[in-house]
Amino acid sequence: MNERDAAQAVEPARVVIHVCETCRGTADGTDLPRDGSRLAEATRDLAAAGIEVRGVSCLANCKRGLSAAILNPDGWSYVFGDLTTESAEDLLTGARLLAGSTDGLMPWKGRPDSLKRGMIARVPPLDFTPHQKP
Ligand code: FES
């Protein structure tokens, strides 16, 4: 194994968490910042190397907000709803699980309950073909 291969072998996949900053959650319509913005900020504050957190305006999951998506450029991506302002650590746990996955899927084992009950969709990678096992 050359030096570059060795570095890639231990380097976790880069994962991005997109948190909807416009979800109102339980807040009144006029309350600012919105609950989604609070969740985005809390997630950013806890994020570690290899995991990037970005705010986004609406993931079209408003009825089940708060909402976030965890994107993996090398595997499956996930959309979650029914989150709360306390879900930052759960999102980061999910992102770490996905970053460390060897098959491109977020493992069920070890996944926080909020990311089990709140899973809205999973999206295959761009190069996915039907012959690949999910
Ligand atoms: S406002 Fe958050 S998903 Fe639409």
- Radius of gyration (Å): 16 Å
Please state the second-level CATH architecture. Answer: 3-Layer(aba) Sandwich
What structural class should be given to the helix and strand makeup?
A: alpha+beta
Task: Kindly report the average pLDDT value.
Answer: 88
CATH topology: Glutaredoxin
Number of helices: 4
Strand % is 15-25%
CATH class division? Alpha Beta
Distance between the terminal alpha carbons, to the nearest Å?
Answer: 29 Å
Description:
Helix content is 28%, strand content 19%. The protein starts with a helix and ends in an 11-residue tail after the last strand. It has one domain: Glutaredoxin (3-Layer(aba) Sandwich), CATH 3.40.30. α2 packs across α3. It is built from four helices and five strands, in the order αβαβββααβ. Bound molecules: FE2/S2 (inorganic) cluster. FE2/S2 (inorganic) cluster (FES) binds next to loops. The site of FE2/S2 (inorganic) cluster has 11 residues, from loops.
Ordered list of secondary-structure elements with their pairings:
Elements: H1 3-10, E1 15-20, H2 35-46, E2 51-56, E3 68-71, E4 77-80, H3 88-99, H4 113-117, E5 119-123
Helix pairs in contact: 2-3
